[in-house]
Amino acid sequence: KYLPSPASGRSIILPVHNAEQWLDECLMSVLQQDFEGTMELSVFNDASKDKSRAIIEKWKVKLEDSGISVVIGGHDSPSPRGVGYSKNQAIAQSTGSYLCFLDSDDVMMPQRVRMQYEAAVQHPASIIGCQVRRDPPDSTERYTRWINQLTSDQLLTQVFTSHGPTVIMPTWFCSRAWFSHVGPFDEGGQGVPEDLLFFYEHLRKGGGVFRVDHSLLLYRYHLCAATHSVLEMTIWTHRVHFLEEQILPHWKSFTIWNAGKQGRKLYRSLTAASQHKVVAFCDIDKNKIRKGFYCHEDSQERPKPKVPILHFQAAQPPFVICVKLDLTGGEFEDNLKSLHLQEGRDFVHFS
């Protein structure tokens, strides 16, 4: 049974691998926190070959002089063991009852620990996130809007989209007791989306999602980020499995909104039992609608399944929507609103 943490220290969890370019600014942001309670920094150095270790040792003195205890672990193996392993090690060596996750290339605003701790006390079985400011500012503009503008309901209804967790990993804050109830992180190493897997397990166990609506993190975008090592197909496979586990068992039938490439890909990725629940595709493309049906040529069934293609206004909910949001100048969103559907009950986004 899950029991909330007692209110004691806060541990900032910082995995590090070859981060010398960003570490000074990152660690300065730890020093500048305005939280007045007990706080520690737990760093795990995952086989860095640059000057990261020396930078960490330098900042250990500065932070401890300011009353922030520092725990340093790590290894010098030829190869890193991955982000999941490093986070688990940093958590294991830490002592705080609350965990504040920080990536070594990001920068916290001074209010972050204080504001997220206050939210975590109010929501003990939740992952607490926050709004972010992206650097460079014009990188991933749609994604950044999505991170910052999801409604409280959408934090739970949009968990199937290609964007991943509805509160992003570098902003996570939660109690140690809740982390232990859900975790640990998958330690499969490079190419494993350990944050997405943890997030799905968190939701399976009834966890909530809460976002502090203040920009509390400078979230950097660069080509060396670990997230780029995760293949799109890996993410897709996990998303389809979670959709089939969490939503489709509750629907006797459903419509796939998008008769194009993404919609057909989703259909082909489903199990045979889920495919049989697909009563139609829907679209606005007159050519697709005029064709009348989609034939699943790779199916082993005889005759091969032919799924009708309808105009969206003629289709019946519930829908799995495979149309990317925020790309049509509002046309798709207006079409969806015209049907007066309830997100989460009548449709889910898989875009």
UniProtKB/TrEMBL annotation:
GO MF terms held by the record: hexosyltransferase activity
Gene3D superfamilies: Spore Coat Polysaccharide Biosynthesis Protein SpsA, Chain A (3.90.550.10)
Source taxon at top rank: Eukaryota
A Pfam cross-reference name: Glycos_transf_2
Positions of the Glycosyltransferase 2-like domain: 11-182
Protein name, UniProt field: UDP-GlcNAc:betaGal beta-1,3-N-acetylglucosaminyltransferase-like 1
Organism: Rattus norvegicus (Rat)
